[in-house]
Amino acid sequence: MPEHCDNPIVKKYGQPQEIRAFMEYAKTGLEAYEKAVFARMIKNDDVVLDLGCGAGREAKAIAGTCSRVYALDLVQGMLRTARDIVPADNVYFMRADATYLPVRSSTMDVILMSKQFMNHITVLEQRRITMNEVYRVLKPGGSVYLTLHNNLFNIGIVHILNSLYKILDAKRTSRKPAQQNTGNNGSTNLSSLLAGYFILRPRSIIVNKYRRTASKIIKGYSGNEAGDWDISQVSDAFSPYKSPYHNYTFKEIASLALNAGFRIDDIRDIWELSHHRTLPKFIRKGAFIISIVLKKA
Questions:
Q1: What's the CA gap between 249 and 85, in Å, rounded?
Q2: In the chain, pLDDT over 70 holds for what percent of residues?
Q3: Comparing C-alpha atoms, which of 191, 188, 178, 199 is closest to residue 274?
Q4: How far apart, in whole angstroms, are the C-alpha atoms of residue 138 and residue 183?
Q5: pLDDT (tens digit, 9 = 90+) per residue, 32-86?
Q6: By the 8 A CB rule, do 18 and 274 touch?
Q7: Does residue 179 carry a pLDDT above 50?
Q8: Which residues, 6 or more positions from 256, have their beta carbon under 8 angstroms from its beta carbon?
Q9: In CATH, what class is 8-151+245-296?
Q10: Is residue 236 pLDDT above 90, yes or no?
């Protein structure tokens, strides 16, 4: 049975269709970019906190490479499925909210906030609290990994340049038979290019501009923030209810991290990690999904 709750995230992700879709996805393992990052970040004696663990995809993949994994999620149905999927005895599942982590201060070596976890926190104050909580429970010298959907509604042109660059690179790579092709293919990049075109629609730009301006000049403005949207599809499943979603600009996520006390260790397009390439910085700003590593001093 689906979960019934006033929280729209729990409503959406608690649907049976979503749980089944996440269960199937959990069986596929890590993405290429995640393998590249996790291999560098996670050591054998590390204690890892997996926020928004879903059906246990990441927890299952890293259980054998670290000391312990604490996997947290808001949705009971996801946690029940994760417990069935993850047989490792060093993985502990808990139902919790990221704004109040049931974890002692300075006890985690690595914190994972992958698969756009932070995009689901659509209230600025809650985003600040979450980032502060993550900082609190992380050990000095520890690392945080997060991926985010970019707020391309501000930089659609750069997103198109980013996609064109990848398409041209894919064509160059395809002419080298000795080089193994990994990660996204040309059709994926073409889809991303088309997404960039539609993102430039005047309505998207106007809505964000209005929200940004209104929040500064209208006293007591309580409308959605720039970058806030309601999305109906969060997986391969088609389920009822919409999920609130917040897209970030580079400046916005950097400000949140720095204000919490973090140092930004790395910001990349996930394509770079999957293909072991480096994009020019101005093109990287058009990343559809941003990969970020934060460090606690």
A1: 35
A2: 87
A3: 188
A4: 31
A5: 999 999 999 999 999 999 999 999 999 999 999 999 999 999 999 999 999 999 9
A6: no
A7: no
A8: 127, 128, 131
A9: alpha beta
A10: no
Structure tokens at 230: 């309601």
Unique residue bearing structure tokens 């994009």: 279
Amino acid letter for position 16? P
Neighbouring-strand partners of residue 231: 243
Token look-up 């050591």 returns 43
Q: Which amino acid is at 48?
A: V
* Structural domain spans, the chain: 8-151+245-296, 156-242
Question: For residue 237, is pLDDT > 90?
Answer: no
Burial 93-118 (b: 16+ CB within 10 A, else e): beebbbeebebeeeebbbbbbbbbbb
Q: What CA–CA distances, in Å, run from 91 to 73, 109, 242, 243, 278?
A: 13, 15, 30, 28, 34
Closest residue by Cα to residue 124 from 273, 274, 292, 244: 244
* 218 vs 225: CA distance, rounded Å: 13
